Amino acid sequence: MEGNEEQTTIMLKKLDDMVKFAQLQTCRRQYLMQYFDESFPDSCGSCDVCLSEIKKFDGTLIAQKALSAVARLKESFGNTYVIDFLRGSKREKIREEHKQLKTYGVGADIHRADWFRYIRELVTLGYLQATDNEYPVLKLTEKSDAVLKGQQKVELTASQTMGEREQVIVPFEAALLNELKLLRTDMATNANVPPYLIVSDATLVEMATYLPHSMDELRLIPGFGDIKLVRYGRDFLGLVKKYCSNNGLESRMKKRIDKPIRKTSSKPATSKHRSSDTRTESFKMYRSGKSVKDIAAERGLASTTIESHLSYFVLTGEMDVLEIVKEEKIPAIKDAVESYGFEKLSPLKEVLGEDYSYGEIKAVISWMNKAV
Ligand SMILES: [Zn+2]
Q: Which of 124, 150, 342, 352 has the fewest CB neighbours in a 10 Å radius?
């Protein structure tokens, strides 16, 4: 913030907090809560850090190597030079007198990328510091001495690539993928839309990899929301099942759920149940004669949420779209959907303006996608 030192200090502090948040190795929710002055005593168990089981190891020797390199280089070089020095790089960039030092090359057994992580971690832990200028230089801190003298143990984070390599890669069925693509082309021609609007290539690959055998399994494939499930699910599923029975294959969905993908988190089944329960609840109340406003107030939810719940039943044909949207509003929403597609709601809302709610837009989309 040029010419505003006070504001600059505040912004730099915020940047620093953000960097800390990014490099965090403890529960992120706990950090956020503390940031907003609220206490959160335990780990949340559901953020990426809590779910990833970070493995620590005794990194004292690594820390000692790094710190003594910084000391030997008289605290005058940045991390790239220090790391090249530690790894015994033959590059001309390393000064001849430095190549004579005992510390030169003591860290050759550690991968360059890992060294960058370790140095960053040592800075975060306060055993090293990086100067503030354009070309940051690594310096020792008041905590460095104890490490160098062997009085202080240092715990470092194990390289995550080790764990990633252990993951089993499930190959996809190439022949099935071709058949799925052909089916998608047919669907697209019939619906007069481009194929990617039916489902994406990534979704087809997921299907050809994990071979879903039921609607419930198909629901777990990214790209299959309620609308697409009702509209296309049965046909895709039929093709996958036929291919599997011809080739003696079974569903591999279990392998998919074991994959550490955030979207499916730890309990996909229950959250799905909850969303269908809450929809049904709204629908029952609506059928008992209550208005959207009444239901929203009684359930402590927003009116648009209730409208979203109800729009699902427009899709299944249990409700008429006119119960949610006034007839004169339908053409404008339909126009917008036909021009912009229904993949994202916010552009539609932007085009339609304040007079149209998300719930109304969803209801019309459901109506347009209703299974015939
Ligand atoms: Zn957490």
A: 150
Extents of the domains making up the chain: 25-54, 55-159, 174-262, 268-369
Specify the pLDDT at position 239: 95
DSSP-derived secondary structure for 251-313: --HHHHHHS--GGG-S-HHHHHHHHHHHHHHHHHHHHTT--HHHHHHHHT--HHHHHHHHHHH
User: How far apart are alpha carbons 242 and 231 in whole angstroms?
Assistant: 19
pTM: 0.39
Compute, in angstroms, the gap from residue 29 CA to the centroid of ligand 1. Answer: 5
Residue with tokens 């470092």: 156
The CATH number of the domain covering residues in 55-159: 1.10.10.10
Determine the distance separating the centroid of ligand 1 and the alpha carbon of 52, expressed in angstroms: 10
Q: Domain 174-262 belongs to what topology?
A: DNA polymerase; domain 1 (1.10.150)
**Separation of CA 201 and ligand 1 centre (Å):** 33
